[in-house]
Automatic annotation (TrEMBL):
SUPFAM superfamilies: MoaD/ThiS (SSF54285). This is MoaD/ThiS family protein. PANTHER family: SULFUR CARRIER PROTEIN CYSO (PTHR38031:SF1), SULFUR CARRIER PROTEIN SLR0821-RELATED (PTHR38031). Pfam families: ThiS.
Amino acid sequence: MAIEVRVPTILRTYTGGQKAVQGSGQNLSELFTDLEAQHPGIQERLVEDGELRRFVNVYLNDEDVRFLDGISTELSDGDNVTILPAVAGGMR
């Protein structure tokens, strides 16, 4: 099962600069474990205590996984996963 994962600039140091990588898994948790095997260090930037980190947004085919099943969201062959760091800040 091939899943395309779009990687934000801040995490591309783990993927050798690649904007997108391929992974596999039945759900997001398995996908992140597979990505960790290919790109060591990336999983700890995405997951903490078995859940998505607070300031990481993950989209499955343009749907926020927090409104699906979170890290347990099921995946299908050909899905697209986009990882986006949350953006905060600005002027008062």
